[in-house]
Amino acid sequence: MKNALAWRYATQKYDPTKKISADDMTEILEAINSAPTSYGLQPFKLIHVKSPELRDQLRAASYDQSPVTDASDLVVFTVNRNIENQHIDSYMQRIVEVRDVERERLNRFQENIVGVLSTLNSAELVAWNAKQAYIGLGFGLVMAAHLGIDSTPMEGFNKERYDEILGLTDDHSILVLTFGYRSDEDHTQHHKKVRKTLDQLVTIK
Questions:
Q1: What's the chain's Rg over C-alpha atoms?
Q2: Where is the Nitroreductase domain (predicted)?
């Protein structure tokens, strides 16, 4: 894993002729789905954009960044501006089904979630949801590297235009993750990574 993480970088130029297998893409999506989130709520969704026409439009809304169209796969993370009680109810029901517990045993857990979320305004809730999405992004990056697949996390795009292009109303585009295989012409792949030393990063007390 250490070698895989050292190998990966934010790919700037993809080879558009190389495609990820369906099985590998499923593994990446499953890794994102397995990421931990606060209370286990998973307050984000993924849009796997396969349409070339949509990706052309998204590239125009991404300051003409080539990975949007040239990478094999593109995933948009979205978050909701609200977490409805229905979403929490649905999560409680999944717990009942997966763990085979009585619904009544989850009432206090649900009340705790609702109580905490009720203290957040809309902007705070979007920020809280986004934090959960970034954990999922990290899992996707690591799984891709493990599979020898390149990736690029992106925040540099017009989020309002993405929402319009993707027909989003309640949900809001928060980040983009592309996957594929690096082009030989991407010279940034040869750049040495610049990171803090562990002594600079970690304080022991």
A1: 19
A2: 6-181
pLDDT in 10s for each residue of the chain, 205 residues: 999 999 999 999 999 999 999 999 999 999 999 999 999 999 999 999 999 999 999 999 999 999 999 999 999 999 988 887 889 999 999 999 999 999 999 999 999 999 999 999 989 999 999 999 999 999 999 999 999 999 999 999 999 999 999 999 989 999 999 999 999 999 999 999 999 999 999 999 9
Longest dimension (CA), the chain: 59
Sequence-distant (6+) residues with CB within 8 A of 200 are none
Q: What is the 8-class DSSP label of residue 138?
A: H
CATH number at residue 159: 3.40.109.10
Asked whether the beta carbons of 174 and 136 are under 8 A apart, the reply is no
6-40 b/e (C-beta count within 10 Å ≥ 16 → b)? eebbebbbbbeeeebeeebbebbbebbeebeeeee
Per the confidence metrics, is the pTM higher than 0.90? Answer: yes
For the chain, the domain total comes to 1
Long-range CB contacts for residues 184-187, cutoff 8 Å, separation at least 24: 184/15, 185/13, 186/11, 186/12, 186/13, 186/14
